[in-house]
From TrEMBL:
GO terms for molecular function: glutathione transferase activity. Belongs to the GST superfamily. Phi family. It comes from the Eukaryota. The gene is 25484758. This is glutathione transferase. GO terms for biological process: toxin catabolic process. Its main location: cytoplasm. Residues 1-118 form the GST C-terminal domain. It catalyses: RX + glutathione = an S-substituted glutathione + a halide anion + H(+). It comes from Medicago truncatula. It is found in: Cytoplasm, Cytosol. Keywords: Cytoplasm, Detoxification, Transferase. GO terms for cellular component: cytosol. Its EC number is 2.5.1.18.
């Protein structure tokens, strides 16, 4: 599990945060996005998700058969990315897509989302 925690924090999160800023936050505030930053980071995310697809073809979650903090830490970024053009990168991979559907459907996550003002 430790290795996947490092992958999330040092690879996924860095790229996802830039995409969330460009495609989520900037859009929310009417700030023009930078297409070059989006393109560069979607290419990086594409490579990361290839690694994720391989791992998730071997187990339901990153830590094995149990939902762990590694999976949980993806949820805030996924919340924005799955509402953006980057959604296609997740949906094009069957194991990643199933994992996203599973973790975003967790009752506790639904409760968190219910606390966010519209």
């Amino acid at each position: 599990m430790g290795v996947w925690s490092e992958v999330e924090s040092h690879h996924f999160d860095q790229v996802a945060s830039k995409l969330v800023w460009e495609l989520g936050i900037k859009t929310l505030f009417g700030i023009p996005l930078d297409p070059k930053i989006v393109e560069e980071n979607e290419a990086k995310l594409d490579s990361i998700l290839d690694v994720y697809e391989k791992r998730l073809s071997e187990s339901k979650y990153f830590g094995g058969d149990s939902f762990t903090l590694v999976d949980l830490h993806h949820l805030p970024s996924l919340h924005y990315l799955m509402k953006s053009q980057s959604k296609k990168l997740f949906e094009s991979r069957p194991h990643v897509s199933a994992w996203v559907a599973d973790i975003t459907a967790r009752p506790a996550w639904s409760e968190v989302l219910a606390m966010i003002p519209n």
